[in-house]
Amino acid sequence: xxxxxxxxxxxxxxxxxxxxxxxxxxxxxxxxxxxxxxxxxxxxxxxxxxxxxxxxxxxxxxxxxxxxxxxxxxxxxxxxxxxxxxxxxxxxxxxxxxxxxxxxxxxxxxxxxxxxxxxxxxxxxxxxxxxxxxxxxxxxxxxxxxxxxxxxxxxxxxxxxxxxxxxxxxxxxxxxxxxxxxxxxxxxxxxxxxxxxxxxxxxxxxxxxxxxxxxxxxxxxxxxxxxxxxxxxxxxxxxxxxxxxxxxxxxxxxxxxxxxxxxxxxxxxxxxxxxxxxxxxxxxxxxxxxxxxxxxxxxxxxxxxxxxxxxxxxxxxxxxxxxxxxxxxxxxxxxxxxxxxxxxxxxxxxxxxxxxxxxxxxxxxxxxxxxxxxxxxxxxxxxxxxxxxxxxxxxxxxxxxxxxxxxxxxxxxxxxxxxxxxxxxxxxxxx
Length: 431
Fold this sequence. Notes:
The chain is α/β, with parallel strands linked by helices and about 425 residues long. The protein starts with 6 loop residues before the first helix and ends in a 13-residue tail after the last helix. It has helices spanning about 5-20, 40-45, 70-80, 115-120, 145-155, 170-180, 180-185, 190-205, 215-225, 235-240, 270-275, 290-305, 375-385, 410-420, and strands at about 25-30, 50-55, 60-70, 90, 95-100, 130-135, 155-170, 245-250, 260-265, 280-285, 310-315, 330-335, 345.
């Protein structure tokens, strides 16, 4: 078993796997379930052109089947050649991606025969593609045919690989044409909508087709556009999740949205996705140092943001009041929870703790963000007393020597981000 908890072991093991794949087609390895390091291990595999073709979770480990990108490229090229190089499929060996576009099919009316397409997919090997892009295809097949095709896509994609689909957004047109003419004219805001609107209206006018109900719109798309299925984003997402894909989401960022089209991404489970799945995670800490509590607090926020499906359970005896209002903790006590946990994180692990760096200190400033000095504890107590700071409560002293008045706001915002459960109502520079 590879112990990925140790960085040196991780790098050495990946190099050994890469060497073995020069004379073996596949390598089977087992790694321990240190979920925080799953992402790092997967990145090292990618950097060394190694694919995860199979992933199996065991009680205390994960079994991996691995191959090299060179072997994958050779296998896919050989399968494509045996299938006669179908024009509907375009394989990119550099990125191990498959581009599928119905406009290249060249069949009757530019349509694609289902049995021919399914046969093309069946000829390709398992779990070797990093990405499949699908455009102008799924509307041509019925729902049962598409379900079998989605399962084929899942079979072809490697662990951690991605599927991207574009298809017509029929509900968009239903909603669009259900509006009154007055509202409709005001709703055409983008060039894409205008072009799509004019194209549909012109075609419907040529065919003397009038839109006066949702049923007529669907009938128009199904019969006149020769479509065999219509999808909303919700329906397509449900089909993909049923076929095994995870993290199915719309690609609708600025510049990516096109009126009348659904653009959707889906993933096949990889190590990063496995680590992010819901878990009960126990946080462990033994330090009595007060200055460590701030770093631990930021680390807890980091865990929540990176793995927001985790339930964070913190068992701590001393300094527990410091975390009593922490909004990221599901459980806080000096007693172990009754239910079992899936994973334990030692938050005193130096490799895991993030640095607290406000980046507004002068480059020559050697003072820490958290003011603490064991060598001069008397001076510290005197300093706190002079400024009315209680020593039995959490406090944060920022380096005021280099803080200009206009920078006080940004510093306060950063402090509020790291410690959102503190009431930071007043900002003072102490000298």
